[in-house]
Design brief:
With about 170 residues, this protein is α+β, with helices and mostly antiparallel strands. The protein folds into 2 domains: about 5-75, no CATH class; about 105-165, Arc Repressor Mutant, subunit A, CATH 1.10.10. It contains 7 helices and 6 strands; from the N terminus they run βαβαβαααβααββ. The strands form 2 sheets. The protein has a 3-stranded antiparallel sheet with strand order 2-1-3. The protein has a 3-stranded antiparallel sheet with strand order 4-6-5. Helix 6 (about 110-120) packs across helix 7 (about 140-150). The two termini are about 35 Å apart.
């Protein structure tokens, strides 16, 4: 559940960490959220909000003094879209959009070699190789060439979880 701990600079500078965790799913948009933050700190005349901690929010969507305009679009996304966008931003383009991530996403694979074998099969390139020679194709080298040539980016997320993005 995406949350931010909201305090103020005035309180912090006076050694007071009073604030609250706000669940971002409770707010329709940024304006709704900021209104709640200001109400939380209505004991100050002109509170300067300070976002002191976070849970389940990509680093690129908030800072100590601001939240990204697209944070609430992200909050209301489905889990698969959130995951895809986070992977894309963390590894490909820190300012990327969900649309860009989806357009460039080639899929989840066991390994780069697994991607290479499937890619060559899908594009018909493998069918041009005589059947008797297909076992000699080095899919790992082909995948590496595609990576080094700038065609794709492989994101290794752990045991047999490689995400592949086109760079074109």
């Amino acid at each position: 559940m995406p949350k931010l701990y909201v305090g103020t600079y005035a309180k912090y500078n006076n050694g007071d960490l009073t604030g609250a965790w706000l669940n971002l799913e409770d707010y329709a948009d940024e304006d709704d959220f900021l209104t709640a933050c200001l109400e939380l700190h209505s004991d100050e005349e002109d509170p300067e909000l300070m976002f002191q901690d976070k849970e389940d929010i990509p680093d690129s969507m908030y800072s100590e003094s601001s939240v990204s305009a697209e944070l609430f679009e992200w909050v209301h996304m489905g889990e698969d879209d959130k995951e895809l966008l986070a992977i894309y931003r963390d590894n490909i383009d820190s300012d990327g959009t969900l649309k860009q991530a989806k357009e460039n996403y080639l899929g989840k694979y066991y390994s780069p070699e697994d991607w290479a074998a499937e890619w060559l099969e899908e594009t018909g390139s493998l069918s041009q190789v005589p059947e008797s020679l297909r076992n000699y194709i080095d899919f790992a080298s082909y995948a590496n060439d595609c990576r080094c040539g700038g065609d794709v980016t492989f994101v290794d997320l752990g045991y047999h979880d490689t995400r592949v993005f086109s760079n074109r």
